[in-house]
Write a structure and sequence with these properties.
Blueprint lengths: L13 H7 L10 E4 L2 E5 L3 H10 L6 E4 L19 E5 L4 E6 L1
């Protein structure tokens, strides 16, 4: 795969969720690990790029909980739900972006 990308299919992502502190309230349908950071769910690519460029102290990744309509990969025409991209770490969570 290009750019050193590898896909690992697992029966469960519990080990990744434990490793990165992805609590049930942040969970979604898939998890990506890029440069040691976790990205849970349908996180917009621009937010991933911005997060990786600033690498905010105390945070280990971004999450879009659930599967909100209108998030990347969940497009349904003009139907869009409000969703937040949450930055999370072992001791903190904050809204990184709002759509």
């Amino acid at each position: 795969m290009p750019f050193g990308l590898s896909v690992i299919e697992r029966d469960t992502r519990d080990d990744l969720h434990t490793q990165f502190g992805i609590i049930p309230q942040l969970a979604s349908c898939h998890t990506a690990v890029i440069d040691g950071f976790a990205f849970e769910g349908h996180v917009p690519p621009a937010d991933i790029r911005r997060f990786l460029s600033i690498r905010p102290a105390g945070y280990v990744g971004l999450a879009v909980p659930g599967m909100p309509m209108g998030s990347p990969g969940m497009e349904q025409g003009e139907v869009r739900e409000h969703f937040d991209v949450i930055a999370f770490g072992p001791k903190q969570m904050s809204v990184f972006a709002t759509y």
